[in-house]
């Protein structure tokens, strides 16, 4: 895979804890390298409890605090909350506009999303029906990357906000059935575990993330590493004509 310098990364996910589980080790690698990382959480996390006594507004605030603590563990301080209702997310034009706005603000070289094509995950000892919010957030983010972020006629109202079109060079997709890049996260795995355990309301103890240890160990075996994360990566390098403005 050809590479260009990366100084800014934007990660878009549906729920608090999605990012840490899917890419916590890679993110720790990136921030240690001096890369600026921004998180964009699409939903408010309000469906993250079946406790009939849990107040929804309180849960939203709890999950925000947990997400900020988890991000800090990985060296991330820029965390954006879009506040869409959890559990009923749709890839609407409004959501695509919101994500396009963030892309044009942050100007990331790399955008990380969940693979929008993943419906079922069937691995050894790990079967998972992908949450529809994951796919909805990913679909909206995918089309925000292209065509919306780089096309001037789309969302003209963003031009009024001073947000010019921006071209993203790389798209990385987590929770994918078609990985083509494996990242060694062995040195960062404890930081990843710590970040995940910041989500106390969802994962109350170390035993709750055994599946993360098992999955990252399985991926690591593919490259001879103790732990690793896998991604589906696409590149869209664009060199404007020399006389372009």
Describe the structure.
The chain has 245 residues and is α/β, with parallel strands linked by helices. It contains 7 helices and 9 strands. Strands 3-2-1-4-7-9-8 form a 7-stranded mixed beta sheet, with helices on both faces. A hairpin with a 2-residue loop joins strand 5 and strand 6. Helix 1 packs across helix 6 and helix 2 runs antiparallel to helix 6.
The total count of strands amounts to: 9
Envelope shape: globular
Figure out the total of helices: 7
Q: Uncertain runs with pLDDT below 50, 5 residues or more?
A: none
**Major sheet: arrangement of strands:** 3-2-1-4-7-9-8
Q: Radius of gyration in whole Å, from Cα?
A: 18 Å
* Helical percentage: 25-40%
Strand/helix succession: EHEHEHEEEHHEEHHE
The largest β sheet comes out as: 7 strands, mixed
**Derived structural class:** alpha/beta
Beta-strand content bin: 15-25%
Distance between the termini: 29 Å
Mean pLDDT, rounded to whole units? 94
């Amino acid at each position: 895979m050809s590479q260009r310098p990366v100084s800014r990364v934007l990660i878009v996910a549906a729920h608090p804890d999605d990012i840490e589980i899917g890419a916590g080790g890679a993110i720790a690698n990136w921030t240690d390298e001096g890369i600026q990382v921004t998180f964009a959480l699409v939903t408010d996390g309000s469906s993250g409890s079946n406790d009939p006594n849990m107040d929804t507004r309180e849960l939203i605030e709890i999950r925000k605090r947990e997400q900020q603590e988890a991000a800090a563990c990985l060296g991330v301080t820029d965390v954006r909350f879009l506040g869409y209702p959890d559990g009923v997310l749709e890839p609407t034009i409004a959501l695509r506009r919101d994500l396009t706005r963030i892309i044009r603000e942050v100007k990331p070289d790399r955008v990380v999303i969940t693979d929008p094509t993943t419906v079922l995950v069937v691995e050894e000892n790990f079967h998972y029906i992908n949450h529809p919010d994951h796919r909805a957030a990913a679909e909206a983010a995918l089309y925000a990357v292209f065509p919306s972020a780089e096309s001037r006629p789309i969302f003209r109202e963003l031009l009024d906000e001073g947000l010019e079109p921006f071209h993203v060079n790389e798209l990385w997709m987590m929770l994918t059935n078609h990985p083509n890049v494996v990242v060694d996260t062995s040195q960062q795995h404890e930081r990843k575990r710590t970040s995940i355990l910041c989500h106390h309301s969802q994962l109350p103890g170390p035993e709750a993330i055994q599946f993360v240890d098992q999955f990252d160990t399985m991926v690591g075996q593919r490259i001879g590493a103790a732990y690793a994360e896998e991604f589906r990566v696409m590149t869209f390098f664009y060199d404007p004509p020399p006389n372009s403005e």
